[in-house]
Amino acid sequence: MEALKNLDKILGCLLRGGSVALLAAIFVILIANVFVRFFPVTSFGWFDEIIEMLIAWFVFLGAAALWRENEHFVVSFLPDHLKGKTAGHLLDIVVSIVSLAFLAIFTYYSLNLTMRAQDWTPIINMPKKLLYASMPFSGALMIVYSVRNIIRSGGRLVGRQR
Q1: Whole-prediction pTM value?
Q2: Which residues does the chain have with pLDDT short of 70?
Q3: Domain segments of the chain: what residues?
């Protein structure tokens, strides 16, 4: 169990660090693009393709990082009202199961899209699969963490009923 906790901590650092690095890269490239528009020293023809890929990976890795730590947006009126009660634990389980179902569908179809993708970017000739791969990768991580959340909520529910 300790090995899983260590793996989770490492994965959390990689997700957060990766998101920060991607955001920094987006920022640097955007600033460079603005600079090059005023002082045309080089061509940024590849700009759109790289930014598109960086933003896709940033969004989906960031979503997985937030999902891992349960920091994503949530309307918390009802969960806060039921917190610590049996109904609250049941609500957590139901919400996690619905989320898991959505993530399973999302991951399945995004993996299907990624596997079927045949197109390449026009300037740098990079396969679009690299861009699309951010979706099933992050979806799979969020599925794992949804299962973890169901197990945790179930443990709290069982512990509460004893």
Answers
A1: 0.86
A2: 160-162
A3: 2-161
